[in-house]
Automatic annotation (TrEMBL):
It comes from Agromyces humatus. PANTHER family: BIFUNCTIONAL COENZYME A SYNTHASE-RELATED, DEPHOSPHO-COA KINASE-RELATED. This is Dephospho-CoA kinase. It catalyses: 3'-dephospho-CoA + ATP = ADP + CoA + H(+). Gene3D superfamilies: P-loop containing nucleotide triphosphate hydrolases. InterPro entries: Depp_CoAkinase, P-loop_NTPase. HAMAP family: Dephospho_CoA_kinase.
Amino acid sequence: MYLIGLTGGIASGKSTVARRLVEHGAVHLDADRLARRVVEPGTPALAAIVEAFGAEFLRADGTLDREKLGKRIFGDDAARARLNAIVHPAVRELSGRLIAKAEAEDPSAVVVYDVPLLVEASVDHPFDLIVVTNAPRRTQVKRLVEERGLDALQAEARVDAQVDNTARLAIADVVIDTDDTLAHTMSQADALWARIVEERSRA
């Protein structure tokens, strides 16, 4: 198995790169989706969140009100740390199981684990390669406004709430520049796949 950690700031093109690698045959795991799974009704993580923050963060159907909780922790470092201490280990355990499952099903699988918070959450899976998608702040803000409907202030706050790009770039084995055309991003993803295929043929 070949394990890629894919990370990058919000609206930096991670999904585009992940989709392209999947087209080439990679298995895609999305940390954001896993973070939703580990807080579904009946999970230990959801029970721990209710214990830490209160039942007012549950909707009537028993699911977590992510938006309300997001507002509660936004700008409150201690609350965010408390939430992360519940969610991150649960995601780590689930992702570990899914990576092992992918390897059991196909020992030669290329697994792309898409982790926005790879740096912040200190994700420590044994990655063969860490790939960082990189776009300047102005591009990230523009995309959030144009593609996700945020206003400029909201968009800037979302970008600024994340770890600085230099911290991500410091751990990168490969940087994919997504500030140019979609075709330019795709060609870099294609080159990455070609590199992986070549590396594995020599192994």
